[in-house]
Amino acid sequence: MKIQTPLTKDKLAGLKAGDLVYITGDIYTARDAAHKKIINLIEAGKEIPITLKDSIIYYVGPTPNKPNQPIGACGPTTSYRMDSFMPTLLKHGLSGTIGKGARSNQVKKLLKEYKSIYFQAIGGTAAFLSKFVVASELIAFPELQSEAIRKLTVKDFPVFVTYDIYGNDLIESEVKKYKTPN
Which of 31, 35, 100, 108 is catalytic? Predict the structure, then answer.
């Protein structure tokens, strides 16, 4: 299934855990340090450098780009490290995140409550994933270097819906298929 950003609520309604999705449009990058800075700005009542409403944050710290390429290798970071920041980000309209690995039960409940989604990109495919990035622009926190916030323009960026807005969990459903009955 192909989707175009911004990731509005009507687009989210059509996505189910297990769907292979190809994202085209703009997404933001952010990892731990950038998340902390965003939360500090929100808590201080200051303007943040990105629009959260209907946006997607990709948990990635890309490597430097080679000449004539918009970005270096850009594989997903383990997502649970950003779980503590999710309540605030979701409250401010974040529609989706991309990373790897499972999320906490609290985040899964919040995703359902706020009608947001969690996608996974395949870990270990950083060089491959860079081929779907057509532009990269530094947006904020250049002092964080690879963890600075960037706006990536992607075309057909491949991800799987892991947790949908209905509370379905791809990881849980796949594990159940392979459990031996007692």
Answer: 35
